[in-house]
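Here comes my example:
=====
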Amino acid sequence: NNGLLMVPNLLTRMYSYQQEPITAVEVMQKGMLFAGTASHRLLSFQTASNRFTSLYKGPANHEILHIYHNPQKQETFLCSDRITQLKNFSLDHEYLVAGKNVEPLGNHLYAYAFANGFGFINTARNDTFSLPPDFTFFAGVNKKVGRGRWVLYDNSRRTLWVASSEGLNYFSPDEKGELTFNYQPVFASSLLKQGSDVYLTTYNQGVLVVDSNFFIKTVVPFSADDNIYKLQVTGQEVW
């Protein structure tokens, strides 16, 4: 009745939670991960028991796009039509910006990408505008850099990378500018720090890697048939 099904691997398993679409996944440690759903629910999943546990359900039914969890602080951020801050998986505060992702900068400060560019959250004050002394160089930065897609902070170089609809910008105490490749703007969908390198998935140039000297090379060439949105790096493998 259902036609012909192909099973590529009999060891493959598929898990679902009450027919809610899974829209975001964050791997925490071996055997445990977090999942966000289209109805603004946060789940944990244990591979030992193959069971989901509902940790939090928001009042809105907007899909979760990104999950950031700090196990030391037991603090979790959910990005959807708003940025939800949880403490021990209970609601602590909501920031009414449509966040794409959240990135820690240190202490109580986080950066986020959203529809109008990027911004900052200071959890010590529950606001989106105050900056600690170490980051005052951002005070004069124009944060409206197009439609924000992703932010990444390189702590070793104190550099914040911002991917937007207008290109890829970087900001540090010493310099700021726009990164280009082959004399073309780089339109990145996500960024990942691995060692001293930054990996980029792009809409127009495949997968790129930027080393500590801002030298760029291609990891996966661009194909008009491919839309690469996110990646993970494990050792010498890029997924």
